[in-house]
Structure formats: structure tokens, C-alpha cells
Amino acid sequence: MDNLIPVTQPYMPPLEEFVPYLEAIWDSKTVTNGGRFHAQLERELCAYLGVEFLSLFSNGTLALITALQAMKITGEVITTPFSFVATTHALHWNGIRPVFVDIDPVTMNIDAKKIEAAITPQTTAILPVHVYGSPCEVEEIERIADTYGLRVLYDAAHAFGVRKNARSVLEFGDMSVLSFHGTKVFNTFEGGAIICRDAKTKRRVDQLKNFGFVDEVTVVAPGINGKMNEVQAAFGLLQLQHMEKIHTERARVDERYRAALGNVGGLRLPVTPDGCTRNHSYFPVRITRDFPITRDALYERLRAHNIAARRYFYPLISEFPTYRGLPSATRSNLPVASEISQQVLCLPIYPALTPNVQDRIIDIILAAAGLQQYAS
């Protein structure tokens, strides 16, 4: 359907702004392997995000897989079932056993109070996710990790530019991984990055993403091909120039939803934890039992009007065949995550979403609630 309204879409700057980058790549004959734009984007992202060491990747999944390799994680890793499957797939590809714990009923992040009970002699790390860009309980997770000698790798795929108590959330843990997929606030078509703490670790990461090469004739590890190419990097540089507009427009959509839906019975809107910023990467609403129709019925009603709202994350990772046989994957172990996965619905949010189209979305929801249409 050509007029389908997606949950999100990339911000596309004017094409004429991208042409000079493409011409420079064409003239240089350097299209990959750490070219000029790749190096420049790493520098500019470090400055923008307030971090010191960042390594670009061709996508966020390869970045997660490589981060686990660089940290030499083995055994069991405690993580959340409420995420995109790439989070747990990265563990699986490294031969690591995921151990699921339940999520917080407000933030929908991993419930830090549940982590300690899941630690066993085989536990080596914690892999939390900043779900929808809302920061985890990073201080409590850090305390637990220090107490039990565990490593912490944050899946920060949604958390570009997010801060907690004036600190970048990317500064917490041993490493953080970003996604620059086309659905994200900042994108390079496909792409991702690892944020680490020191130059030695960055060198290790950079070697692993390039087959383990140190120089032309020396390979020190069984690395992978995770390099970002010059076209992706160039698009990222152009995106950075428009980040203020991107954030402003996403905030506009967020505020409009809150104004229209904030008092609708049976709907729960996203909450920003105290001291945290939100990058408006998603707008998840929860359709509770008090709403006149079910989440799935509302989903189908929106789809019938070409609105591609997404049940994100449903099903839980723990419910997929690859993982549902794990002892920690039982619904009795994950009651909050199980309930929320049946309630959550992400509404469209992106810079190009016009007020008129957003009003259509809002009016469908208000009609389902038996309320009058939204007064624009």
C-alpha cells in the first residue's frame, strides 16, 4: 500500500546536500576500509555524544556480536526478553546462554531488582537494553556488577543522544552499542557503533571488525567484516547537521500525542524517568483492560486505515522457538513482560509526520475509546 503510514521513517535531507559527499567519494576512489568520511564521522559522533572512544560498524547487530567478542564474554548473560531479537541473537552467535529476567512495569526496562536472584556461578555479564531510549537503572546495575564481578554491555540501540543526570547514558557499563538503522533517530541507512572506555579496547574492537588484521600480514583474532562504508558514513555526517531539526520535529509529534491521549481511560503513555532526557525514538502506548477494545483490535483498526502501528515488542524474545525452551523463558518467570507485550502498541513518530496525518491516527484511537474527535 503506497499510502501506508509507518511507525517511523528516516529523516531524508535534501538530495542536493548529499550529492557533494557522493562526488567526493567518487573522486577519491575510496569507498570503504576506513576512508575520510568514516574517520570524520567517528570524530564528530564522539563530540556530539560526549564520549571519547567510538568505533563505527556496518550495522548494530554486528556491533553487538563484536562487543561480546571483545569483552571475552562466555557462559551465561542476564538480559531482558522485551527487546528486538538481535539483542539475544548476538548472545546465541557467541555461544552464550541468555538468562531472562522480568521487566519494570513503568519503564519496561530490565527490572534491576530481579537481577541478583538470576546470578549463578556461570554468569559473566549483564546485557540490559535502554528500551525506547528510556535509560535503565544504571546505578543499581553498576552496583550489582561490581558486587559480583560481572561485565555490563548496554544495548543502546534506541538511546542516541539520551542523557541521565546530565551524563550520556553511553558512559555507563563497560561498553554500549548503538544502532544507526534507518528506523532510528540518527541513521546511516544501516549502521551502528560500539562505545568503549579506553584506546586499547578501541584498537581491539577495530581489529575484530576488520577480520582481526593488525597490519597487512598480521591477523591476531578471528574477526568479522563489520566495517562501515564511506556512503553510510557520509550520510551520517549529513544527518548530524540536521539533528536539532530532527529532535524538534519528533518532540512536536510526541507532545501532540500526549495532549490528545493523555486523559483517555485505559491508555498508558510513555514515562520519562526523573533526571533523564528522551530522544522521542518511539511512542509506545499500553492498551490496558480498561480500554473498550483490545490492543490487537486497535492494531487491526489502525491497519484498516493504512496506519502501520507496531506491536513492539511482541512476541517476547523468550517466546520464540529458539529460546522458549530455556528455564528462564517461562511466563511464570516473566509476568510483567508477558502482560506488557500483550498491551504495547507503538504509534507513528518521525519528523515528516504531518499534523493532519497524526490527527487521523488520534481520531481512530479516540473513536475506539468512544470519545469525540481531537480538536486540532
| E-strand count | 14
Q: Structural class of the secondary elements?
A: alpha/beta
Give the spatial strand order of the biggest sheet. Answer: 1-9-8-5-4-2-3
The CATH topology of the largest domain: Aspartate Aminotransferase, domain 2
InterPro entries: DegT/StrS_aminotransferase, PyrdxlP-dep_Trfase, PyrdxlP-dep_Trfase_major
Keywords: Aminotransferase, Pyridoxal phosphate, Transferase
Family: Belongs to the DegT/DnrJ/EryC1 family.
Pfam family, one: DegT_DnrJ_EryC1
Could you walk me through the main structural features you see in this protein, from its secondary elements to its overall organization?
It holds the Pfam family DegT_DnrJ_EryC1. Keywords: Aminotransferase, Pyridoxal phosphate, Transferase. One of its GO terms (biological process) is polysaccharide biosynthetic process. Belongs to the DegT/DnrJ/EryC1 family. The protein has 376 residues and is α/β, with parallel strands linked by helices. It has helices at 15-28, 36-49, 60-70, 86-93, 115-118, 138-148, 199-208, 230-240, 243-261, 295-304, 335-341, 355-368; strands at residues 53-57, 76-79, 97-100, 123-127, 151-155, 163-164, 167-168, 175-179, 192-196, 213-215, 218-219, 267-268, 283-287, 344-347. A 7-stranded mixed β-sheet has the order 1-9-8-5-4-2-3, sandwiched between helices. Strands 12-13-14 form a 3-stranded antiparallel β-sheet, with no helix packed on it. A hairpin with a 2-residue loop joins strand 6 (163-164) and strand 7. Helix 1 (15-28) packs antiparallel against helix 8 (230-240), helix 3 (60-70) packs across helix 7 and helix 9 packs parallel to helix 12 (355-368). The two termini are 27 Å apart.
